Amino acid sequence: MPGKTPDKEPVENGGYRGGKDIEMKEKDEQEQAASLKHKGKKAAKDGEDEMTVVVPPSKKQSSVPPPNDADGDVAMDDLDKADDGEVKVDPVVQAINDIKSNFALLERAVALFDARFTLRALRSISSIRKRLTPDIIAQVISETYPPTSGAHFAKSLLSAIGKENVPLGRQPGPEMEIDSEPKASAKNGPKKENNKEVIAEIDIFLAILVQVYLFDSKAYQLGAEFSQSLCDRIHSLNRRTLDSLSAKVYFYYSLFFEQLSPLPPSSQSPIVSIRPTLLAALRTAVLRRDIDTQASVIVILLRNYLQTSHISQADLLVSHTQFPENAANNQVARFLYYLGRIRAIQLRYTEAHEHLTAATRKAPSSACALGFAQTATKLLLVVELLMGDIPDRATFRQPTMEQALHPYFLLVQAVRVGNLDSFETIIAEHADVFRRDGTYSLILRLRQNVIKTGIRMMSLSYSRISLRDICIRLHLGSEESAEYIVAKAIRDGVIEASLDRERGFMKSKEVGDVYATREPGEAFHERIRACLSLHDESVKAMRFPMNQHRLELKNAQEAREREREMAKEIQDGDLDEDDLGGEFEGM
Q1: Which of 87, 387, 451, 575 has the greatest number of C-beta atoms within 10 Å?
Q2: What's the total number of domains in the chain?
Q3: What's the mean pLDDT in 410-438?
Q4: 3-class SS at 506?
Q5: Domain PCI: where (predicted)?
């Protein structure tokens, strides 16, 4: 009975014997005594075995290894559960299993022609890369590739990590067989594994893991040579299921060459030598309609040109290529950032502001993309200052941005007040930070904006002010310089005033009501357009299962055919309302 059966662990002791033991437990003491009396010693012995099932075993008894079952290691796993309460998994075995679990996703992506499974495999690299070692990679390669098929590529992978002597075709141990699929017999299992052909997607995925390991171990020269040969192999293949993987390969290919000396922005940097390879990859991706590689290579080329300050070539690339609309959101954010930097250098601040604003909005909100969000926000703040606007104070109060944006906060304060001395002091103190962020040359342009801001503040404070006072307050060299700056500010629309050269003063005009102008309506229109564009992009980015609409159409067509048949039978008199349950009201 349930109330009389205590908790126990019968699997290790092998005490369960089907319904016989359960029947013995449900008998009362008198029936047990009668059974023992008739069966003698043999029954008594069986009764003792029954007692060993009920009584929980001690640690001394459980330490004896039980006999192995058909799989070889289930009983040992149960022993670990009994001793420690949880299964102990070797981290090396777990890492190998995590890598091999992605092979099924890649095979499914090829079978269903669905790139979502490939993206899931690529997303797992971030969690695997911290546990990558040459031994783990070598063991996965050895257990994946048979000695006959794909041996040449497997040997190149092993030589890249310094494991050339590892033999191929190694069979996984019993501790590796933890998947839920039914296991083959001992005779047929290894033969089936050896005869299985490794698809190209698994080749490239393992090669990406080798790239990640070489980059994390700072073996940049070896990684550059390996990536060069890998790019040649990808260029020879023409499989749409490799698009996402090839984009990742070119990404690391560029990163390796960026770390080789002489470093950018030197014109002798090795990153200049990889531009023909990247341009050829872009041309091939456009011809093959490879959206992932096309977007990735365009972003890599823009980064390459900007690192060596080849702004005109970057502008030509943007004007002669079309960035794919269906590209991944991360690639779109990077492209908009680099495009905004190009436009800011070209003095096209309005376009740069639009691109950088879109880049910050598209930036992922996760912690791993915090660096990109900070870099894009820094450049956006500088562009807003160059446009004559003052950034919102709430931008500097964000917890993830406060410390990184502190030098820019001081810069904005100096520009807002129009204090030229404070502005130059801040630039001198934080010059290293601005150079590292790549905004130093743009910040030097803000000197005229500081002067314009000071003139604007004075035009709002005074209805009339002399050029000599302007020269003293802005620390300018002469009244002629003050006159030139004031005239330029009036022409650019920074201030609404008039300049009297004979008397030597500036007269401000009366400030009207801003709501009587078109400015509020234009700002409202810009916000509505941004919201509508965001909605359209979200709709375009939605993904649906492939060929799902065909199944729905098929079901709808079958339903219509059944309705026609039922209506025809009703008209012929074969069916009536009673046969239909009284719910059919006609067509």
Answers
A1: 451
A2: 4
A3: 88
A4: strand
A5: 333-513
